[in-house]
Write a structure and sequence with these properties.
4 helices; about 80 residues; mainly alpha
Length: about 80
Amino acid sequence: MYDELEQALDNVGKYDSKWQLKYLSVKNFVGMYKRFPSRHHVDEHVLLNWLKYNRRQLRDGALDELKKKLFEDLTAYRHSEENNF
């Protein structure tokens, strides 16, 4: 499943490399800490703000289909990491 995500990230395109980098940063953060970034840790605010912005975009229907799928899979990835504790 995650190999497909990595391939899908390649398809996001160079025009959106910043989105791709933030996505990978959040995914790595979740893999390492088994949680999403917190508002209680100042050094995590950049990733938290990216998450909040993309949640808003998802809610408003402003994410394209690929980003929508990747973002939803990030939430599923978080939950799978929690189960591996």
